[in-house]
Amino acid sequence: MFSFETILCHDSEHQYERAVVPPIFQNSLFSFADWDAIDKAFESRHKSYIYSRGKNPTVDFAEKKLSEITHSDRTILFTSGMAAISAAILYCVKPNSHIIAVKNVYGPTSNFMTNYLREKLNIETTYISGENLDDYRDNVRKNTSLIYLESPSSIVFSLQDLESVALIAKENNIKTICDNTWATPLFQHPLDLGIDIEVHSVSKYLGGHSDLVAGAIMGNNKDMGELFVKEYEWLGGKISPFEAWLLIRSLRTLPIRMQRHQENAMKIALFLEEHSKIELVRYPGLPSFPQYHLGKKQMSGYSGLLSFRLKTNDIAKIKTFYNALKMFHKGVSWGGFESLVYAPAISYMKELSPDQFSNMGISFGDIRISVGLENAKDLMNDLNEALKMI
Ligand SMILES: *Cc1c(COP(=O)(O)O)cnc(C)c1O
After folding, report:
1. For residue 84, which atom of ligand 1 is closest to its CA?
2. Over the stretch 46-76, which tens digit does the pLDDT of each residue have?
3. Which of 119, 247, 320, 376 is 20 to 30 A distant from 78 in Cα terms?
4. Which atom of ligand 1 is nearest to the CA of 154?
């Protein structure tokens, strides 16, 4: 078994004319020598190259690497994180079933469950904090078919004890999905801890260069084989060969990028924690983080997304601070090479009532930053200068 760095750099795809970078198979279909050959391909359609809505060699290269680093039997790449997540959820539910989900889950994921599945399939979702194991046990119903996790979540970084939740789910014959976007397959292995299905927004660290949108699902052969012929091929949310190719490029530097994201984020988290104008910093790598020990137990490192709360609640001052940042681009998403800043209040105020907002553990003064690959001192100076303005 090779280590991550070797798997991600050593391209088995050298088989094509020994090119060091694999070709992009930008073809919609594959042709066959004769009747028997095409007949044979259809016998194992989820393993054969027939049509690029199904399998494509460039996509395969990327999927194989992701399977190795997630310790999964199989990976399926999708056109976006949400295409992967909605397909994975649909695979685990049926009409009138019930979902248990963590309340700080990614917004569109929760909208999909609460609004779409409820309306179309009469599926009810119960939201729990996810931090106490009894919350899971107490909410299991006869028709519960899925426990949906996101650990850490991406604004308050709430963790779930993946191994224990997987056990509770297995006892009750319930499937588990974990969104592992924050930790990446480098720092956390949900499948090794007993989770059935791992999902990712590949648009974040796995892509890492802010130039692609994609998603992924990992799991065992049985689940992935079924999901491939149904939710993947029928809903049709396939990744394009070009984006898969960009992803192969990105994966070569994933370990080195994550190492730098982690170092920079830790320096900045410590700096912010000491600052007199900051009330609290949320970063699972900080010893002061409430679930620090659980994080240490189930993750081997921390990525670069963190949040902090300004002491002021004055929206004018919060805006002044936000606008004064020069190194941090203002925008959504995260996980790229460039540092970003976002205030959850901007979008949440439009979508949530003040009660829902505070129920999620968020307040006006909360600022989220995605710490990029720049020099940490430059980033700290930028934060420091902006903090002087308020
Ligand atoms: C961005 C994100 C998603 C959705 O991924 P897209 O690629 O934008 O569709 C899902 N989960 C988490 C935690 C995310 O941050």
Report:
1. 9
2. 789 999 999 999 999 999 999 999 999 999 9
3. 119
4. 13
| Ligand 1, pocket-test mutation among 153, 160, 198, 204, most atoms within 8 A of CB | 204
Final residue in a domain of this structure, among 251, 281, 313: 251
Q: What share of the chain is helix, strand, coil (3-state, %, to 5)?
A: 45, 15, 40
CA nearest neighbour of 308 among 191, 176, 177, 157: 157
Query: What residues does ligand 1 touch, defined as CB less than 6 Å away?
Result: 80-82, 85, 106, 150, 154, 179, 181, 201, 203-204, 213, 215
Question: For the domain that residue 262 is a member of, what is the CATH number?
Answer: 3.90.1150.10
- Which ligand 1 atom is the nearest neighbour of the CA of 105? 13
Q: Give the model's pLDDT for residue 196.
A: 98
Neighbours of 259 (CB within 10 A): 12
- Low-confidence residues of the chain: pLDDT under 70: 1, 11-13, 348-349
Tens digits of residue pLDDT in 100-138: 999 999 999 999 999 999 999 999 999 999 999 999 999
* Total tally of structural domains belonging to the chain: 2
